[in-house]
Design brief:
The complex is a heterodimer. By secondary structure, chain A is mainly α. The model of chain B has no long low-confidence stretch (mean pLDDT 92). The chains are: A mainly alpha, B mainly alpha. The structure holds protoporphyrin IX containing FE (2 copies).
């Protein structure tokens, strides 16, 4: 063995090949099988993709680095289920490019946040967290009242559709309009949003002001959608409890 | 730096600068606004600056005729200066974000200075800016000395260093503008990622071409580690960053990976960024500078072979220990845990080999703060790998995951191991490459050493306490079977630890500032002759 290595050290390409082989095996064994996941983890029937407004909110979530303090992955542990809700299923993030499971909980997990608080609470909290939670260490985000830019949304949906997220041509073509309509329940477009994305989509002025479409609208719409895209996690937990 | 190039090389460099400026112009013109436009403008400005510098010196005296028989140290000198600059930026931001967690009201009301945007600025500046420049600079030095050959050409080292620093600057300014992929340690957007691939291929080709010119039959062990670092980082970077841009004229892209696959790919990348960036490369550094500084050969050649292949093979399996109890399939978690525990063997073999090398040189460790930096680095390497293997055990991870215990582990590795070995290498190289006997202020090295050790200990111990407290508070039930503490109570409990951590970090940063000033004083005092001509090729003493 030592002799062999002694000779290997004289060959730079030998070392290169050795390193590549040694460093490929683990990844191949662990990652490759996950790509059969579509067969092993069924996508629930009721799983819907995010609406354009929610997607815009998700992008703000990423832009501001909220993921650095908030996870979106309830682990399969009793205390987490008691604190946050049903543990997260792989299928729930099947359309997430990228996933936002997170690695640090400076603030609480957000996977089951949808419906937990009112829109007004979120708006007040985001503008100044210490107004609603005096000892919070979350930063304030007063600039989220800026106007939301919807120009890029169609192109974004089209890109995600290419990657396999089930956005129809209709959804792609109307992304900008749907984003606006989701925050204006009285507008003509509101019915289209329900028709395209389903009854479970919340349609309202998330920042409390129907006259302007703001980044706050998008972010709060996103936060309120967390954990509501499918009921699968609740059903799975229910079944386990029944057994 | 331009004088070390021959006149034809200056012309090639001029052409490359024009190409860079044009690339920047094209990016800025296509994007028109947003992060990509700013980045285009940055590239254009850099291209133009290089263009003027080269143009002004194009017909200065030619490079010395005998340079092929000398080492090429100018790139290493530049890399060391960049290492120090990024150290100050990265650690400065680190202390600032640490303070924000204690005192969130201090956040100015501008988007760019918010915690979520500054945190990746910290991680990228320290890992890639500070760590990456140190790796590249020392790898050029070690490669030449152990091969007794000059770098294969004079242009590609500059492409690697300047291009890599442009990547870091793009990444960091991108986050400030809100442009990020959100993948931890791979936040930079698609065009920066493609740019890094080009730089990395240049680096690898330069490495192989220089090795091909070596005057020693054997490739010294430090080079194996540097090669593993370059190769595997390329592999990880490419796979994890495959993304579809929304438009070629904008920064935004979507990774092609989704959900659980994305999580696995991300942590396969993430952990092996730790393994091959923060560990393998730095072991290369250790295996060269520790023997050189202590004047003792590596304790066991056999052990170095075993630990090298052990590390390369085992590390790749362990990424899934970042995903215990999540929606990742159970068998993958189990594999990750098992290999993490096995990984302790090659890790401790390396640490032990390094410490045993010091046998017979303990009096030097006592007297020489530079060697002591390296010794402490090896000790912390041993400690943090032990801690890592422990944290990877599923039930332990159920407590530690998501808490500050992870942050404590991270900084025992990065402050205790990575930063300490870098400082050791810098204090060895700076006097040597600037033609001086010692650092300008030898006593200041001693000060730096104690500040760094104290700072690290305060940081790590306070985070252990913070993490364990947090983990326990989250899972404690009262007599009625209800959770005892609200989340906010656990946040409040962190305050004293966050304050302590900020103090520890500030001590560490103070040490780094002293180091930078000391280096500057040493560089200023360098005689003109010491940096103008390269050193002749000579047998190297490390083996
Ligand atoms: C002056 C010393 C430093 C201070 C005060 C500091 C502070 C911090 C803080 C406050 C965080 C965020 C933790 C959180 O989100 O709760 C962090 C994260 C991090 N730092 Fe540092 N840091 C320092 C030096 C370094 C160095 C030298 C490195 C690497 C070479 C480093 C690598 C990291 C990494 C990888 C993370 C992310 C950890 C994770 O995601 O779990 N830090 N640091
Ligand atoms: C045998 C070696 C090691 C093992 C088995 C190991 C294991 C681990 C484990 C289990 C975690 C926690 C994952 C989680 O719960 O989220 C972790 C996190 C981390 N470790 Fe290590 N570790 C090792 C060595 C090191 C070293 C030497 C360094 C630094 C130089 C390091 C840097 C990190 C970083 C940066 C993270 C944080 C990742 C994140 O969440 O952002 N590790 N490691």
């Amino acid at each position: 063995m030592l002799r062999l290595h002694y000779n290997l050290e004289k060959l730079s390409m030998g070392l290169v090949v050795g390193i590549i082989v040694a460093a490929s095996i683990g990844g191949a064994v662990e990652i490759a099988p996950l790509f059969t996941i579509d067969e092993t983890v069924a996508i629930p029937d009721d799983l819907r993709p995010q609406t354009p407004l929610e997607l815009a909110g998700r992008e703000i979530f990423i832009r501001e680095g909220c993921y650095a303090c908030h996870s979106q992955m309830v682990r399969h542990l009793a205390d987490e289920i008691d604190r946050y809700g049903p543990y997260s299923l792989a299928a729930e993030s099947a359309y997430d490019h990228p996933m936002l499971w997170g690695s640090k909980r400076t603030g609480p997990d957000l996977a089951r946040l949808g419906g937990k608080y009112s829109d007004a609470w979120h708006v007040a909290h985001l503008i100044n967290p210490r107004a609603v939670a005096p000892t919070s260490i979350m930063p304030a985000y007063p600039w989220l009242t800026a106007r939301l830019d919807t120009d890029i949304l169609s192109a974004e949906l089209a890109t995600l559709a290419l990657l396999g997220v089930p956005y129809s041509e209709d959804m792609v073509a109307n992304a900008g309009r749907d984003a606006l309509a989701q925050s204006r329940p009285d507008s003509d477009g509101a019915a289209n949003v329900t028709e395209r994305y389903g009854e479970t989509v919340a349609i309202r002025a998330f920042d409390g002001d129907t006259s302007r479409l703001t980044e706050m609208d998008a972010l709060v719409a996103y936060l309120q959608s967390l954990g509501t895209l499918t009921r699968a996690a609740y059903e799975t937990l229910g079944q386990e409890a029944a057994r | 730096m331009i004088r070390s190039l021959s006149i034809p090389e200056r012309q090639v460099a001029l052409a490359l600068s024009v190409a860079l400026a044009l690339l920047g112009l094209a990016m800025a013109a296509a994007a028109r606004h947003g992060a990509m436009a700013v980045h285009g403008a940055m590239a254009m400005a850099l291209g133009l600056a290089l263009l003027f510098a080269l143009g002004g010196a194009l017909y200065d005296p030619d490079a010395p005729a005998d340079r092929a028989r000398r080492y090429y140290d100018e790139p290493t000198r530049f890399g060391i200066v960049m290492t120090l600059c990024w150290a100050l930026i990265g650690m400065g931001v680190g202390v600032w974000v640490a303070a924000l967690l204690y005192w969130p009201e201090a956040t100015p009301p501008w988007p760019a200075t918010s915690f979520g945007r500054l945190r990746p600025v910290h991680t990228t500046s320290v890992i890639f800016g500070f760590g990456g420049n140190a790796l590249i600079a020392t790898s050029f030095h070690v490669l030449q000395r152990t091969s007794r050959a000059r770098l294969a050409d004079a242009i590609s080292p500059w492409m690697v260093l300047i291009g890599f620093n442009l990547f870091c600057a793009w990444a960091v300014t991108g986050y400030l503008m809100g442009s990020t992929q959100s993948k931890e340690y791979a936040e930079a957007e698609w065009y920066a990622d493609i740019w890094l691939v080009v730089i990395w291929v240049t680096y690898f080709v330069l490495y192989l071409r220089t090795l091909a010119r070596r005057a020693e039959p054997h490739i010294y062990v430090a080079n194996w580690y540097y090669m593993a670092f370059i190769l595997v980082v390329a592999m990880l970077h490419i796979v994890n960053n495959i993304a579809l841009p929304v438009s070629l004229a904008g920064a935004k892209s979507f990774t092609i990976w989704a959900g659980v696959q994305d999580a696995m790919v991300q942590w396969w990348y993430g952990h092996n960024a730790v393994a091959f960036f923060l560990t393998a490369g730095f072991l290369g550094m250790l295996y060269y500078f520790l023997p050189v500084r202590s004047g003792r050969p590596i304790w066991s050649y056999r052990l170095s072979i075993v630990s090298f292949w052990g590390i390369v093979f085992f590390y790749i399996w362990v990424g899934s220990h970042h995903l215990h109890y999540t929606a990742l399939p159970y068998w993958v978690q189990t594999l990750g845990m098992t290999f993490s525990v096995m990984l302790l063997v090659p890790s401790w073999a390396s640490a032990g080999n390094a410490i045993a090398t010091l046998n017979g040189a303990w009096h030097k460790v006592r007297d020489d703060a530079t060697l002591r930096f390296m010794f402490v680095a090896a000790v912390f390497y041993g400690l943090s790998t032990f801690e890592g293997s422990f944290l990877a055990i599923r039930p332990v991870n159920s407590l530690s995951h998501y808490t500050d215990w992870t942050v404590g582990h991270v900084h025992s590795g990065t402050l205790g191991w990575v930063a300490m070995i870098i400082f050791g290498a810098i204090y060895t190289l700076v006097p040597q490459l600037w033609g001086r006997e010692t650092m300008a202020w030898p006593r200041a090295v001693e000060w730096h050493f104690w500040l760094a050790v104290t700072g690290t200990l305060i940081y790590v111990v306070s985070m252990w306490n913070a993490g364990i407290t947090q983990g326990l508070m989250w899972r404690t039930y009262d007599a009625n079977g209800a959770l005892s503490y609200s989340f906010l109570q656990s946040v409040q409990a962190m305050a004293p630890y966050y304050l302590l951590r900020t103090i520890g970090g500030a001590l560490f940063l103070t040490g780094a500032v002293i180091c930078a000033l000391n280096c500057r004083a040493t560089m200023r005092a360098a005689s003109e002759g010491a940096t103008a001509t390269d050193r002749p090729l000579a047998p190297q003493p490390a083996e």
